[in-house]
Amino acid sequence: MKMLKRWCAVLSLVLACGVFSVAAQQPSPQPQPQPSQQNNDWIPINQLPPQEQMAAAPLLIGAYVFVLVVLFAYVFRVARRLQSVQQELDRLGSTLKQGGRA
Amino acid sequence: MPKWFTPVAVMCGAMLAASPLVIASADYESTMGLVQKIFYYHMPSAWMFLIAAMVCGVASIRFLATGDPRHDRTALAAGELLVVFGLITLVTGPLWARKAWGTFWIWDARTTSSLVSWMIGCAYLILRRYGGPGSEKLAAALALFGMANVPFIYISVNYWRTIHPATTVVPKLPFTMGFPLWFCVTTFALLFVVLLKLRVRVEEQQAQVDALYLSLDER
């Protein structure tokens, strides 16, 4: 039941991310500037005015932090599980030994 | 644990810690700039995602053919890694795409097939967790579909119209970008091996615990 709740939480998080990404793709209602005569086809992204450029650093830092957090969380979870199974194995081994002596 | 495990785990940890410095020394890509550096974690994790699907599928075939529980344990460990590396790939890719393509997600052949493969991995783990007795064989059959999807994911960019880079990009990289990439690929490959071994070890210990409980019940 606890695991089911955890899975539900993970699925809700994935759904929330999906909704967020769809919402982020919606164009914001901003007044469109009139294209000038010289530049009415396209503008290279590095020649855009500063207010229309998107900062790359938050995306890059977000990606690296996410990777490291996921990896550390997984390693921590597996190490804890290994430790608890090892303890259970030791406990059962000693119980069996005591039973054998008796 | 085998003798090689500790040195490999230490080397993997050191390489993972050093990887941001190696990536920082890489040249900037001329059109995408800074955000392109997500590539150095995105692509190795995508490769490990595909390798995990292959390992899970091959181990499942061997389990179905022989019934040996060792193969089942390997398949389960690889299934978990499939979901972990798949999640990393599916999150870092859209963060890169937001800047490079102007949108988080495009339903092209590669992204869609990668998402399908990740969902097959999730279904595999859910089936293993809640499927009850005998779910191992059903899950093993599901893993075959995950493995069958791998070649499709890899070649999809060469055969379908997409803005995803083609598979010919990596061999053409200059040394200043190729070295950080192969450094990260080696790091992630070592990480994959270490995590797979660790996860298989958990399952082996759990099998021993189950066997001991059975022997206690028989007394």
Explain this structure to me?
The complex is a heterodimer of chains A (102) and B (219). Helices cover 68% and strands 0% of the residues of chain A. Chain A is mainly alpha-helical. With 219 residues, chain B is mainly alpha-helical. Chain B is built from six helices and no strands. The chains are: A mainly alpha (102), B mainly alpha (219). The interface between A and B is large, with 35 and 42 residues.
SS elements, strand count of chain B: 0
Parts with pLDDT < 50 across at least 5 consecutive residues of chain B: none
**CA-based shape of chain A:** elongated
Cα gyration radius of chain B (Å): 19 Å
Q: Short summary of the structure?
A:
Chain A contains 2 helices and no strands.
Itemize the secondary structure elements and their pairings.
The complex is a heterodimer of chains A (102) and B (219).
Chain A: H1 2-25, H2 57-101
Chain B: H1 5-24, H2 39-66, H3 69-100, H4 109-130, H5 135-159, H6 175-218
Helix pairs in contact in B: 1-6, 2-3, 2-5, 2-6, 3-4, 3-6, 4-5
Task: Provide tags for this entry.
heterodimer, A: 102 residues, mainly alpha, 2 helices, elongated, B: 219 residues
